[in-house]
From TrEMBL, chain B:
It comes from Streptomyces candidus. The chain crosses the membrane at residues 48-69, 81-104, 131-152, 164-184, 196-215, 253-271. The lineage of its organism: Bacteria, Bacillati, Actinomycetota, Actinomycetes, Kitasatosporales. This is ABC-type transport system involved in multi-copper enzyme maturation permease subunit. Keywords: Membrane, Transmembrane, Transmembrane helix. Coiled coil: none annotated. It comes from the Bacteria.
């Protein structure tokens, strides 16, 4: 059996999307496999939502293609039975009740109306099924969007920033939901701009920046290669300390607030070295760079909207 | 051996389907899309409001005018049911609004993305919307025009030929529903409720208004054409009170409107395939 016919597989190849002059997605190729949660990570404006819209055939790629189970999305006659997607929880008519919103979607795919009650139950919206969705809170809207994604009991699920604006309980619920969906053998593709969020849920990572692929790796591999460990030192005798380190062939870099950072040497060895030269230490602490920092480093060149560190001066 | 209480973690095998749903697969057809659009149109308040206002305008104005004219003799050859014309002319506005809203509100709210994710065939979505809207509007307009014709006849007495009855109910309802369908097509092209409604009101009113100001001799032919083919004039034909002598007959105007609708919906089909949502 060829890879292209594996059920639940999403394949993206050479995907490019231009909006006029702006290239939102640039030659993107990767695939998403069943049975795991694949995180789709990138800073704001990286092209995540654009890519997902092209996966669902909402936007037309300038070049390149997307195949789901080896087919184009438009070839899926009852797409809700293959793919459940939550791109934007507000993409509904607020004047319609939750029940009717789900009913009209179910009907269009020939899904029995009894599924509507079931998914409302799964997301815990049964009590407000007949309320108009415009009065729903952010969390309730998100749950309704997830109910719609689950309607056809699909083998593939796609979520665009599902935890945005949710309270801790809601975030916890979505995390567990995604993991359990993947554990059932489904394909789960979820975007985020928070590395820390992905570290908790994703098994595999696809990282993009400015529309280009930056990394396509397992979570474990990403952690192994990207988490730098170092030792932070602070001393009132910084000059002497630098001297001593230099003579011992150890490179130290100055960090903010009078601290020094040393890579690749243990805290014990550094402490003993300082003691031998009778240098007072105010801090000697092993540090682990967070995945968030690793992610920021990876995407540093590609971040589109940098915040200015300092406000530009007002010139007269 | 006992079965484990928790399901074993999923093992990935190349070539083995990931997840197979117990929900049975059934081919979705245009009928399913029609059921979906019917649920949509009946589950929002704008449908109740616009069609309700239309019925009130059609029946209310017709009955009021009939009551006011109880003691006045109608011109020779004019059937009393033609007094329903003004109400229907006003009733066009809510029908246009509903036609536009049926599709443009999906773009306004973002619902269209959910709709097209569930049914990627743009043609099927547009066809289902058009059919459901047309049938619903036709049915409600038919009820309203039948009611008002009966009310006017009851108030004023007099006899009305069968063909005029048919024109004032079925003919008018078909024409109004087609006009609403045109609004739906325009809504699909413009994707913006207020813009599409404005365009449609212009289409209805502008030719007649322009004709009123074409006083010069050289424009006489254009003026005559606008007078005969403007939408209010074509509507008047169904009541046997055309505004000119050489204009279309009732069935010809239905054909003309049908052709216009086909043109605009065809354009909407073509354009939809090229555009992002
Ligand atoms: N319809 C459009 N017309 C023009 N430019 C667009 C359009 N949609 C997206 N873009 C541009 O494409 C780029 C990618 O946008 P996209 O929404 O895909 O990013 P994202 O990764 O989802 O960001 P975020 O994390 O903020 O949601 C942005 O620079 C955006 O301005
Ligand atoms: Mg986005």
């Amino acid at each position: 059996m060829s890879a292209s016919s594996v059920a639940g597989m999403i394949e993206v190849s050479g995907l490019t999307k231009r909006y006029g002059e702006k290239v939102a997605v640039h030659g993107l190729s990767f695939h998403v496999s069943p049975g795991i949660v694949t995180g789709f990570l990138g800073p704001n404006g990286a092209g995540k939502s654009t890519t997902m819209r092209m996966m669902l055939d909402l936007d037309h790629p300038t070049t390149g293609r997307v195949r789901i189970d080896g087919k184009r999305y438009a070839e899926l006659r009852e797409p809700l039975k293959y793919v459940g997607a939550l791109l934007d929880a507000k993409a509904l008519h607020g004047g319609r009740s939750a029940y009717h919103h789900l009913l009209c979607l179910a009907q269009s795919n020939g899904i029995p109306a009894s599924r509507v009650g079931e998914v409302l139950d799964v997301v815990g919206l049964t009590a407000v099924a007949n309320k108009r969705s415009k009065n729903f809170s952010l969390g309730m809207g998100q749950r309704l969007g997830i109910a719609a994604a689950l309607l056809g009991d699909p083998e593939i699920l796609m979520f665009d920033e599902p935890v945005n604006g949710l309270d801790p309980e809601g975030i916890h619920w979505i995390r567990n939901l995604m993991k359990s969906l993947a554990a059932q053998g489904r394909t789960v593709f979820v975007s985020s701009h928070l590395m820390s969020e992905m570290a908790l849920t994703a098994d595999h990572l696809v990282v993009i920046g400015q529309g280009r692929l930056l990394a396509d790796t397992s979570m474990a591999e990403f952690i192994r290669t990207n988490s730098r460990s170092y030792v932070r030192l602070r001393s009132p005798q910084q000059e002497q300390l630098l001297d001593v380190l230099h003579r011992a062939g150890i490179t130290a870099v100055t960090a903010g607030h009078g601290a020094l950072e040393v890579d690749g040497v243990g805290a014990e060895e550094l402490g003993e070295l300082a003691a031998r030269h009778q240098i007072v230490l105010h801090e000697l602490s092993p540090q682990q760079a967070s995945l968030e920092e690793a992610f920021m480093q990876l995407t540093a060149e590609s971040v589109e909207y940098h915040a200015h560190a300092q406000p530009t001066e007002w010139r007269t | 051996m006992t079965t484990p209480s928790t399901p074993a973690p999923y093992q990935q095998h190349p070539g083995v389907p990931g997840y197979v749903s117990p929900v049975p697969l059934r081919r979705a057809t245009l009928l399913d899309a029609l059921a979906s659009e019917w649920t949509k149109i009946r589950s929002v308040r704008s449908t109740i409001w616009t069609l309700g206002v239309m019925v009130v305008l059609v029946v209310g104005f017709g009955a009021l005018i009939a009551l006011a004219l109880r003691s006045v003799d109608l011109p020779e050859g004019e059937s009393p049911v033609s007094l329903g014309f003004v109400g229907v002319l006003l009733g066009i506005i809510p029908v246009i609004t509903l036609g536009v809203m049926t599709i443009a509100s999906e773009y306004g709210t973002g619902m269209i993305r959910t709709t097209l994710t569930a049914c990627p065939s743009r043609a099927r979505v547009l066809a289902a919307k058009g059919i459901v809207f047309f049938l619903l509007t036709f049915a409600i307009t038919l009820v309203a025009t039948a009611l008002v014709s009966a009310a006017i006849s009851g108030i004023l007495g007099g006899s009305t030929a069968g063909s005029v009855w048919l024109g004032a109910t079925v003919g008018v309802s078909a024409y109004v529903a087609l006009l609403g369908l045109l609004a739906l097509g325009v809504g699909s092209l413009v994707r913006h409720s207020a813009g599409a409604i404005t365009i449609m009101i212009g289409v209805v009113l502008l030719p007649l208004v322009m004709a009123l100001f074409m006083m010069s001799e050289g424009l006489r032919d254009v003026q005559q054409f606008l007078l005969e083919y403007s939408i209010p004039s074509q509507l008047a034909i169904f009541y046997g009170t055309p505004m000119g002598e050489d204009g279309p007959t009732g069935w010809e105007s239905l054909g003309l409107m049908g052709a216009l609708v086909a043109l605009v919906l065809g354009l909407a089909f073509l354009v939809q395939h090229k555009r992002d949502v």
